[in-house]
Amino acid sequence: MTDTASPADEAGAEPAPLAPPAKADFGAWLAVAAGTIGAFMATLDISIVNSALPTIQGEIGASGTEGTWIATAYLVAEIIMIPLAGWLERLSGLRAFLLTMVGGFTLFSMLCGVSTSLPMMIVGRIGQGFTGGALIPTAMTIIATRLPPHQQPMGIAAFGLTAVTGPVLGPVVGGWLAENVSWHYAFFINLPIGVLLSCLLFFGLPPVRAQWHLLRQADWFGIAGIILFLGGLTIFLEEGEREQWFESSTIVAVFAMSMVGFVSLMIGQMLAERPVLRLSLLLDRQFGSVILMAMIVGAAVYGTSFIIPQFLSAIAGYNSLQSGQVVFLAGIPAAMLMPCIPWLIRSVDLRLLVITGLSLLALSCWLETDLTALSTGDVFAESQLIRGAGQTLAMMFLNQAALSSVPIELSRDAAGLFSTARNLGGSIALAGISVVQDQRMWFHQRRLEETISANSVIVQDYMNGQAASLGGMPTAFRALSGTIQTQALTLTYVDMFWMLTIGVIVVLPLTLLLRPLPKRRPLAEMAH
User: Fold this and answer.
1) Which CATH topology does 14-217 take?
2) Residue of 153, 175, 298, 386 with fewest CB within 10 Å of its CB?
3) What is the pTM of this model?
């Protein structure tokens, strides 16, 4: 193969979108396989460390608070890279860009696997986030440019399956490796996958000449703004509650950094001929509605994936592997639905699919509002299966709605904004969970304590019985305090599920603003 360049390249303009072939050859399917596996690897690594986090913290000498940065560092880097991926891909060419990202992801994974200190681990996770964040949006570009329109639904289904199952499979894989092998292999597992990916990309994608002249036209204010604003905002949301918000000088500095980034981003919107993140798209009624729904869906998906393992660990006494298996139930309906996605795209109204997805997502959260201190993983089985179907329909078809609501030449910008909104919704949800857990835990404890009267004969008889069986009144009081805390924590988790339920219901009317998908518009035109 030889490097190719269009006349537009010669003139210094941005190249036109590549047209897909009339029929996909073997190399095209190799490229699609590489894109979907890369997206799977990147989404898997978001959550693979969650189950093994206590073990990792102990071995590298990190405290509980410090250990949260192992997860946060990846999320911060990924949310910065996602909106930059399209510009970087145009700059260096798709094959060279992806080969670089896969190689970097593999090397940073190895660094995480051999880490002996927290700083070493954080550097590795930041590198994983930057390189892995590029693999998710570019998977759709491969499908768009390497498959003809009539075969693109099959590529979309394959991509959707890996993108949806990656986050729910992560805790299971990480928990099993930590329990049965070693936490190091949660990172070493990426080495053979990375080598396979590099081979698939090398043979499946044609080389394209780099467009280095685009550096002269780059929106440098916007690029700096994305790094400072999204990075600072994510850290602010993730760490704010733990650091007591503005009582911490670190949080004040991070907030100031994010505000400087926001100003820089706005300057880029006004001055750049082609902003790296085109926020003006949010003024479109349909696209703005899709972005709001994407944020809420991201909050519900990431929020429940965090709350359920926490509940099972704190209330039901589950270990990391058992909790991961409960979370993985959501992947079963996703796998079953994916073969139907091509038919759904062709045959069913987009609005009906999004309404169904959001309704199922709200129902799954509502089913978890009757939790008690005696609940175990079994009570989540029905809601997790419903959630898996709901998040698959909502995510897949909101993404299609985002791409179809903008002109062809702005579709890459729309895809970046959509992915950023989804991840930002997850960050807001995790920050909100920390706040709600502290505030509502205190509230419920006080309310429960007020219902227990020291002068009540029933209370006195109960405490005397507990003292007799537990070996003294001090032990009985400690047991009562533990019971109150358990009940208060259970009620707090119920409050969280109520908030997620209401949040999804609130955005449901926005589906009325959506338009049906264009029947004959190729994905290549929408995603490139």
Assistant:
1) Growth Hormone; Chain: A; (1.20.1250)
2) 153
3) 0.80
